[in-house]
Amino acid sequence: MTNIEQVIGQSQHRSALSRVMNFQVFWVFIAAVLACLALTFLTDSFATERNLFNVARNFAFVALIAVGMTAVIASGGIDLSVGSTVVLSAMVISVLMEGGYPFWLSAVMALVAALAVGAINGVLIAYAGMPPFVVTLGMLSIARSLAMVLSNNKMIWEFGPDHDLLLWVGGGATLGLPHPLYVLTALVIVMSLVFRWTRWGQYVFAIGGNEHAARLTGIPVRNLKISIYMFSAFTAGLAGILMAGWLGSVTTNLGQAMELTVIAAAVIGGANLAGGEGTAVGAVVGALLIEVIRNSLILLGISTFWQGTFIGCFIIIAVGFDRIRRLRSAD
Amino acid sequence: MSRLRLSGISKHFGAITALNDVSLEIAPGEVLGLMGDNGAGKSTLVKIVAGNFRPSHGEIRIDDQVVDFHKPLDAQRDGIEVVYQDLALCDNLSAASNVFLGREPLRSFGPIRVIDYPQMRKRSAELFAQLKSETRPRDLVRRMSGGQRQAVAIARTLLSNAKIVLMDEPTAAISVRQVAEVLDLVRRLRDQGMSVVLISHRMPDVFAVSDRIAVLRRGQLVADKATASSSPEEVTGLITGAIEAA
Ligand SMILES: Nc1ncnc2c1ncn2[C@@H]1O[C@H](COP(=O)(O)OP(=O)(O)OP(=O)(O)O)[C@@H](O)[C@H]1O
Ligand SMILES: [Mg+2]
Question: ipTM of this predicted complex?
Fold first, then answer.
């Protein structure tokens, strides 16, 4: 006879190790570490402070948005508009700051613009019942076009009285670490807790697992979806502000095709495109692997045109992994 | 006293009459077997009681109070729980999470409120024990047998202290051993004083657990009698129309 305590403690009869190894994040992380080690030995330039600083900063932008994308994918959706939201947010802050407005006000307005994009996505998907793919594809076009209208398609590199503050926020470093990395760390910690410990997090995964069931239990599925797309847009808006400061100039190509890298990062990190799975840490590890690959191609003198091939292979391998796990657990 | 009383319920879908003037009554702690051919209107009746549809005509009373449900949540508030044909569980979540989905207990840390997982696991382990099911709270529903999934769906109804549990073909797609498990679950619900409406095409299941049997044919109630005073032959005749009414 087993008592309640034992039953509670039990899950599947498997060791902790085998459970860790079942985690895609674990393998992706190992791959990234191996790549880093190999590069350290193969090149003189990888393990330099300068290069590591660049890697850390570059991957932070993709990782930030990949955390937002993970929420969307875990809920069974997709958000193709994040790259355009990045440029819209960056354009709003640049245009306002160029016009003499202070940094904080302009940053808030940039986030408001991003959140508005997310809210429109969410309402059309949740209330009008349109497929996320189509809605956010439309928004991909709209948001970038609005950024062009806003800036008259000119490059902006003069940010008014708070010019230096913007460059410091996005491009500066504290204690040797680039600022975007701090933002990313905070976001990942908060979202890991939110995904696991709050009702919102639980419902995101419930909707992705079985939307119909979620609705029947009385979960406010529609409003939740709106909040999910707004969160995704928020991360893109945040990345837009930081990128503006990092680059020191903003053009309307900013964030072009970024949605693909972001989705790749999330999927490589274990987000399941069928919904119901994904972690914030996974998104970051996925983004890290992509950036390490990109960096290694450059350092090894291989044409960066190969980058897409590598990333594509990793996506397919990641999805393949998932298939294998599923087949194994089916019997 | 009747727990649930339906009087003169009709439901039209455009030109289709899915239910025609159905009146039924269920006492507390009673198991009613609801039978009928495909398209007879069984699921429609369940959905009306569960608040998915509103009846075109007729009245629903719970504990002699007239109720009017606009959405499933209204019915839940009045103590009606449904175990759906397709079970409506989230495969990617644990058994405990599914039992508590939509009503997770929270614990406060200052202004922050987080899900109380230990409490959830403890309570669902108790519910599974109560149902004598070997379901473990931490297990993912994806890896469970059909019987264990039923236990999860049914534990939800225990959790909410439902008065009336509606089960739409709970034994349709599971193995013989699991059917026995589910029928045991139905008896446990009854022992807790809940009323159960069990829809099934499987004659032995209905005869094994129900106190009364009601038969629908083309939207009309053609029989409503004690199980003890009926027989599978009679019910088969009623379903097909070989016997007009009983
Ligand atoms: N939403 C709907 N819109 C239109 N017609 C419907 C709808 N739901 C049910 N019907 C019709 O109502 C009738 C009764 O259907 P119902 O699903 O209640 O049958 P059932 O007894 O549950 O059958 P089964 O044993 O196949 O589950 C059928 O003719 C069906 O086509
Ligand atoms: Mg049916």
Answer: 0.80
Has residue A196 been placed in a domain?
yes
Q: Are strands B195-199 and B31-36 parallel, antiparallel or unpaired?
A: parallel
Calpha distance B202→A281 (Å, rounded): 49
Question: Could you give the dihedral angle defined by the CA atoms of residues A255, A260, A264 and A267, in that order, rounded to the nearest 10 degrees?
Answer: 110
Nearest CA to CA, how far is A219 from chain B (Å)?
5
- A218:B102 CB<8 A: yes
Residues in chain B closer than 8 A to A73 (CB atoms): none
Considering CB atoms only, which of B90, B122, B136 is closest to A213? B90
Q: How many domains does chain B have?
A: 1
Using CA positions, which residue lies closest to atom 7 of ligand 1? B13
Q: What is the pTM of this model?
A: 0.84
Q: What is the CA radius of gyration of chain B?
A: 19
Largest Cα separation within chain A, whole Å, is 75
B99-142, pLDDT tens digit by residue? Answer: 999 889 999 888 889 999 999 999 999 888 877 778 889 989 98
Q: How far is it, in rounded angstroms, from Cα A283 to Cα B69?
A: 43
- Mapped onto helix, strand or coil, the DSSP state of residue A155 is coil
Answer for the pair B96, B116: CB distance below 8 angstroms, yes or no: no
State the CATH number of the domain containing residue B204.
3.40.50.300
Strand runs labelled E in B37-85: 57-62, 65-67, 80-83
Number of domains in chain A: 1
CB neighbourhood size of A174 (10 A): 10
Q: Per the domain annotation, does A181 fall within a domain?
A: yes
Domain that holds residue A166: 60-282
pLDDT for A4 beyond 60: no
